[in-house]
């Protein structure tokens, strides 16, 4: 309740005295006042009854017992009710003013010597009452805003749809002081309403609970798209919901959940006693329903995107593994078939060279042998790039040193390798991923960086392996032909993400590029076991 100024002690006795004196005349005063109020504002009976509870006549019993705190509670309650009835505060102020004016003719005869003093007491009562009523209006509006803001916070904080729906029902039931809450969502396949979430003691809807569209209270709301209310569920057909909620609720409020003009579900709250909603409560309930529907749609979209991203990550991992397998297959075929065939050709050419005496023919054979030798050397380099034997046989450190040495030899860029002694052997998959990252980074330096120097660092710190590839080139340039390089960087990030690692690329124009990755070290067997388990889970996950 908003803080309000108290009634002054000096005025309490006079207000009580005036109220006692006017008590016999209250029926006539109230009758005249109601007529004037109806002519001026056209209030209905419900509104007139609420406004009447703010008058001197309604407060007489409180004043006579010197219970002004109870009168303040009365003003606050009916002020809140008038706010929910959407009565303008200016109309309330005018109603208090009219009641005072209807009392004044009687005061002149009852207090001839203290008329001004009695009127001042009534004016002070009206002023304080209006301040209390205005505070009730403010509190009601604050509660509405707080509920909607809480829904927004819940939408932003919820990790998945189930958590979001639970928070929505908690906020809604707390806002209206309801005893239960239920959200039913429309199933895309069957078209029925199915239980998605419920709160409230003893309210446990079974997983297979469903309601046909148009059936019962919630089914009709879903078809009409309009809010609905039941004052007493024992006197109205509520469909299959009735046995589930009748222990906790006598009254039900329900609103449709609409998104893009389509009904996606229904939200229902219940109260332990008959409770008729007022216009503001109805509008707030509808606003909560609209906000909830939007949140549900966003949560569904987020879940779908998350599933797609997970699926894409799985497919990317599968493609990378398939790529490595294909590289190994191609390297084996080059080694076992093409390489062996070239060696046979070289052998036959050697035999031909030894058996021919013509100098010009021997020269051509020698040139052909040189071509075959260069081809064999080229194939060996390709095999080394596709599936380096040094990585498989001697490990990551030797493979990186060889890669850097070949890079420097082929490009003229000075390459420095710094690897701490405690790096050791890692799981085959981890070593392969790190090697491919270094290979891709050096490829980018050779093709794009225009660098003079490049440094490769590998450091192991407890359970983490850090790899840094840094050059002194021109940096990553924004240009039309940069897409190929961006794909290479994307491949690096994808490989490292598969291992549960982190990759960072920093670059400044003219100041070079730095690629840094951090991956879990672990023991080779542990990393391999985890990688195989992830692959097995991906293989058994339903499509």
Describe what you observe in this structure.
With 543 residues, the protein is an alpha+beta fold. Helices cover 63% and strands 14% of the residues. It contains 17 helices and eleven strands. The protein has helices spanning 9-22, 26-41, 45-52, 56-64, 68-84, 89-110, 115-157, 161-176, 216-224, 242-245, 279-355, 359-386, 389-394, 396-411, 428-449, 483-498, 524-540, and strands spanning 180-186, 193-199, 210-211, 228-230, 251-259, 262-271, 414-419, 453-461, 464-471, 502-507, 513-520. Strands 3-2-1-6-5-4 form a six-stranded antiparallel beta sheet. A five-stranded mixed beta sheet has the order 7-8-9-11-10, covered by helices on one side. Residues 480-484, 524-529 and 538-543 have low confidence and may be disordered.
Report low-confidence residues grouped into runs of 5 or more.
480-484, 524-529, 538-543
Task: Find the count of extended strands (DSSP E, 2+ residues).
Answer: 11
Specify the number of helices.
17
Instruction: Look at the helices and sheets and give the structural class.
Output: alpha+beta
Biggest β-sheet strands, sense, barrel:
6 strands, antiparallel
Task: Give, in spatial order, the strands making up the sheet with the most strands.
Answer: 3-2-1-6-5-4
State Rg. Answer: 42 Å
Helix content: 55-70%
| Assembly classification | single chain
In terms of DSSP E residues, the strand content is: 5-15%
Q: What string, H for helix and E for strand, traces the elements in order?
A: HHHHHHHHEEEHEHEEHHHHEHEEHEEH
Distance between the termini: 56 Å
Shape assignment = elongated
Overall residue-averaged pLDDT value: 83
